[in-house]
């Protein structure tokens, strides 16, 4: 009793310090490392601007200030057009029409102000607007950063060498229809046109069944002079991809090049603390494939193409990541591609074709569409989003299998929540023999330990001050009786360890499987990839210990209760060999505290996806039913008494190989001998 009373404070202190360490780390991570997204813009930071689309066919004058190159008597400058925007793509179409993208094109820098996906919604609400794939980023000086602008052009013409800034110059809109818009920027030498830069955005008709979300960019340089011209063009990629995960910034930058059929991919994440430029220079023998900005579910690719529409052009020299817009903001980066010097003869032209994919990340689509497969869109971006602190326990192949299995079950039952419950039954059925055998072994070990208890007490009295000798003699007793205490402990934990990779693979699939986004279960659970939010708060609060919280979640409470009662039903493992009375008392106290640790699990899982909480709650519920059946079976076996009689060897049986427990005993004996030898040598 004295040992037990002394151990209680130490156990409680250890649990208290562990809880304090966990909650402190949670607060630091959510406050400084992965701060929650804020609805209100920062005073000194860039703002993603959400604009209202103009009616189809209308042109809207831009109120943004421009810094166009002024008209000069001599030297190169750009003719200034009108600042206006037009809508192209899914204008006036219903969901399932011929266009998958709605885009607002601006003549300023010939870029995309915003782009929306008509097949996806911004939130789970029925009246939610289209998903905002791209949005402009407002700079502190009032200007805007837009997607796919042509930022600059370095011109070599006769004895003139000059860099022209184009990102904030209004181009001239020359044509527009529902599918496309074309703009031009004339480069003048004095009042004489010498070069013409033409840019066309085209959103082709793509029925929903094709699962393509393409926008084509055609950039053409025409030489209007009578001299050879050489130009180097800087073309920007997508900006304003929104953050999906409230707990951490899930956006990343990716650049790919290819060598002899093998991908060579470099990636930089937007949360990187390094503000220096990241260069992805296209080295000799490498072919550029694409650059991309992605979040958990969606990706914006920009792939330069050859004249025949195939990947691997010869006109890109490097792809560059522009540093963060502000040092204090890690949310917005821009990728740029820079061309090689392009020679354009007098009266000739040079066209640069680019393919932009703006849509969901889908391995199935990326592998089945021939052009996407040739560009190798899928694996690098998709696999990168499977990485996490515990990803080493869930192989990518297991995550892919989990997504495949859930999608196929859902195709039969038409509900991902039901598919998750069926998955629980499948996993429980597979692991049932292991769970049952482990608990039966634990029971047998406990029965055998009871019969050996008098012998172990005798050893403690015989060698009261020699712990090593006690352990050595105990191992001999266990070996003679055919008992392995560690078997009971390991077999009891094995089913949980086997389920951990499945939990992590399911968590990954819930986080990064776009097919499960906004998929409901029943009643209030409207999105299995987000917390269940039984009572929404209307906005997100950074709650201490819980992190970003937008509502009262009920499923984590079910997880706590189910895990609590399952722990209550679990059999208690036998103590390992060589434990002192104090250690045994501490272990006993820890076993009593284990059911209450489920409260900590509730805090950890409070803001996890409801699909993961549904899996754990269902697994614990079915585990309780399984536990009752196993306990009934164990009670029947207990009536038979411990099986102490070893099986008789048959004639001709080969000698049994020593097990790991016997090898461990031999190693301990050798160590004991070496210790005695060392002591004798010191005395001499």
Give a verbal description of the structure.
It is a single chain. By secondary structure, this protein is α+β, with helices and mostly antiparallel strands. It folds into two domains: 2-33 and 392-640, no CATH class; 47-385, Beta-galactosidase, Chain A, domain 5 (Distorted Sandwich). 36% of the residues lie in helices and 26% in strands. The chain contains 13 helices and 27 strands. The protein has helices spanning 2-33, 363-368, 370-375, 378-384, 396-413, 416-462, 467-481, 485-512, 555-569, 581-593, 598-604, 610-640, 660-683, and strands spanning 47-48, 60-61, 76-78, 84-89, 101-106, 111-121, 130-134, 137-138, 144-145, 150-157, 160-165, 172-176, 180-189, 192-202, 214-223, 229-236, 252-259, 262-269, 278-281, 287-294, 298-305, 316-322, 334-339, 342-344, 349-360, 535-543, 547-552. The strands form five sheets. Strands 3, 12, 13, 14, 15, 17, 18, 20, 21 and 25 form a ten-stranded antiparallel beta sheet that branches. Strands 10, 11, 16, 19, 22, 23 and 24 form a seven-stranded antiparallel beta sheet that branches. A five-stranded antiparallel beta sheet has the order 2-4-5-6-7, with no helix packed on it.
